């Protein structure tokens, strides 16, 4: 079976953790971030890492983005960057686009753009920890 390929845009705390875990699970991961230092730090651990602006459509095309199975927009605080990147990933034809949102309205905007899955990391983690706290034998939720 073909190895699934992921592109993670934004290698902050959330994006880098996600990218590293996908690598550990045996998938191929391309990481993209504006921050060159961050990209240099991560390049040893990812299949490929590129310092670039993800809102640069030509750059995304040159990386062959449409061939990736799943794109993750892990940009939070800059909502404009998040939304523009999500639109480009959808338009370029990535099958599944996942994006992180930092507010309910941000999440609604991402859903309206056709993002396949919107993640609210802090909210989702709060729910998960609550379940773990009241169900001691539950290893993972
Ligand atoms: P975290 O909590 O995961 O650290 P955050 O919401 O604080 O994330 P942001 O500052 O919004 O993080 O962005 C996460 C990463 O996305 C940063 O490393 C930033 O350099 C990168 N980033 C922001 N805009 C772009 C862009 N247009 N292209 C590529 N990377 C970007």
Automatic annotation (TrEMBL):
Identify the taxonomic lineage of the organism of origin: Bacteria, Bacillati, Bacillota, Bacilli, Bacillales
Residue ranges occupied by any RCK N-terminal domain in the UniProt entry: 3-119
Organism name: Paenibacillus woosongensis
Membrane spanning stretches: none
Protein name, as recorded: Potassium transporter Trk
